[in-house]
Amino acid sequence: MNYPNCEYYIPYLIMEERNRRMWTQYALLLLAGCFVSQLYASSDVKFYESFDETFDGRWIVSQKEEFNGVWKHAKSEGHDDHGLLVSEKAKKYAIVKELDNVVSLNDGTMVLQYEVRLQEGLECGGAYLKYLRPQEAGWIPKEFSNESPYTIMFGPDRCGATDKIHFILKHKNPKSGEYIEHHLKFPPSVPSDKLTHVYTAVLKPNNELLILVDGEQKKKADLLSDYDMEPPLIPAETIPDPDDKKPEDWDEREKIPDPDATKPDDWDEDAPMEIEDEDAEKPEGWLDDEPEEIDDPEATKPEDWVDDEDGEWEAPKIDNPKCEEVPGCGEWTRPMKRNPAYNGKWYAPLIENPNYKGVWKPRDIPNPNYFKLDRPNFEPIAAIGIEIWTMQDGILFDNILIASDEKVAESYRMTAWKPKFDIEKEKQKAEEAASAGGLKGFQKMVLDLLYKVADIPFLGEHRSKVLDLLEKAEKQPNLTVGAVISIIIIIFTVFLKLIFGGTQQQPVKATGKAKKTDGAETSSSNKEGSTQKKEDQNEDAAAPRRRTRREN
C-alpha cells in the first residue's frame, strides 16, 4: 500500500464529534502505516522485516537434517500482528534472509534491532539473531547452520546458569588471519515475562556499544576495552615464551621441614585416636537380650509366593515394641572417647627455605599476533539468520531492523512495538490483580523488589526456584511471608557459597539404636564419639602441614 504525505490524515483527528471515534482510530492506523512506510523508504533504513507477509519464498529454511523445527507465519497472541514463530518444543531451528544490499558497519552509527516474544516463557533455549558475512566466506543459505560465519550474534539466551543477552563480535586478527569470538562481559539478563520485548544494539563510531531493552539502556561498553570484551579485541603486546623451560634447580618451596628438628622422646605415634570410655555405665533398663527389630507378627506370606521361584519367604522386620520404653536394646558396648595420649604422626616443623626463588613463570616475548586498533574492522553483513536450539515453543520474532540512525530505530519502537507492549502490559496487570486476590501494597512492593533481585546473574540455577516461589506468593497472598523467607534463605546460601566455597561435611550415620531419653546417655555418647572421630580424622589429614524481574 502506498501512502501519500502523512499530513493528509491529520484532519481526520480533529473532525466533528459525531464520527470522531471511528475516524480517529482509522486515521491513527493510516498515520502509523504512513510513518513506517516513510521510514522504510529512508536511506537510514538498511533492512526491515515486519513479517506482515508470509516468509515463504523470501526467507530460506535450512535443509540441514538436524534443523527439523517447523517455522510458521503466525499472529502474536492477542494481536493481529504477524511474526515468525517457533512452533515446536525441543527442536533445532535455522532460517536465513539474504539482504538486497550488503550492509557495512564501518560507516558511522549502526543500529541492530528486533522484537521477540517468549509466549511460553524460556527455560532453556536461545532467541538471538546472527548477522552473517557474505557467502564468499564459505556458506550457502540452504545449508545455513551453526558453522556459518557471522559478524555479530545478538539476543537473549537462557539455560541453566546462563541468563543473558548475548553480544558476540567475530573479529579478524590482521596478523594471524584468524576470526576470534569476542564476548560482551557482564551482559544484561533476559526479561522473564511473556510480553513482547524489543532488543537494540547501537554501534557508535567512538567504539561505544549500547544494549537497550524496550528502549531503556541496560549496558554501555567500549568495544576496545579489555574490561568490556573477553577476550579483548586488541591482544596483549607480550606473551609467555612457549619454549621457555623451568631450570632444574629452581626451588619453588617457600618453606621446608626443619632438618635439625627431632621427634620428642614422649611422642607416641602408635597411640590410637580413640579409646573406650572406662567411666561409662550401661543405662538402667537396657535390654541386652532383646533384638532391635523383630519379624512383623501381622505379616502373611502372599498367596502367589512360590518358594522354588521366589526363594524362602521371610516376614518383613519392624521395630521391636519392647525397645520403645527403654534406653535401648541389644548388646551394650562402652562408647569411645578421644585418647588424651594421642598425638598422631610426627612431622618436623616448617622453616623458611633459604633456596626459595619464588614461583617460576616463563619469560615474556613479543606477541607475533599483536596489532594496534583505533576502531574495530567489522565484516559486512550480507544476511540475517536465526539458528537456535530451544526446549520451548511459542517464540515469536518480529520487526527486524538495521538502521544507521538511532532516532529511526526509536520511531520503529514507538510505532511497531509500543502499542503491542502497552496492550500486553495492561492485560498482565489485570490478570495479576485478579490472581492476587487483594494483594496489599506492602506485599506488592516486596515482591517487585524480589523480582528485581531474581535478575541478578549470580543466582544461576537457583533462579527458577526463586521465580516459582514468587509466582506462588502472588497467587496466594497468605503464603507471601513463607515465600519471602525461603527466597532469602536461597539467596543467602548462594551468597555464602560464592564467598566461602567448599562442601559441607556429611554427618556421620549412627550405627547403634537407642531411644534419646534422659537415661540414654550412652547412645548419645556413641554418636558424639563417632562425630568426633570424623573431625579428628580430618584434623589428622592436615597434620603434615600442622519472572524474573517483573515489569511494572
Automatic annotation (TrEMBL):
Query: What GO MF annotations does this protein's record show?
Result: calcium ion binding; carbohydrate binding; unfolded protein binding
Q: Which GO CC annotations does the UniProt entry carry?
A: endoplasmic reticulum membrane
Keywords in alphabetical order: Calcium, Chaperone, Disulfide bond, Endoplasmic reticulum, Glycoprotein, Lectin, Membrane, Metal-binding, Repeat, Signal, Transmembrane, Transmembrane helix
Listed Pfam families: Calreticulin (PF00262)
Asked whether the UniProt record includes Hydrolase among its keywords, one would answer: no
According to the UniProt record, which cysteines are disulfide-bonded? 124-159
| Similarity comment | Belongs to the calreticulin family.
Q: Which PANTHER family match?
A: CALNEXIN 14D-RELATED (PTHR11073:SF1), CALRETICULIN AND CALNEXIN (PTHR11073)
Q: What is this protein called?
A: Calnexin homolog
Organism listed in the record: Solanum lycopersicum
Name the gene.
LOC101247033
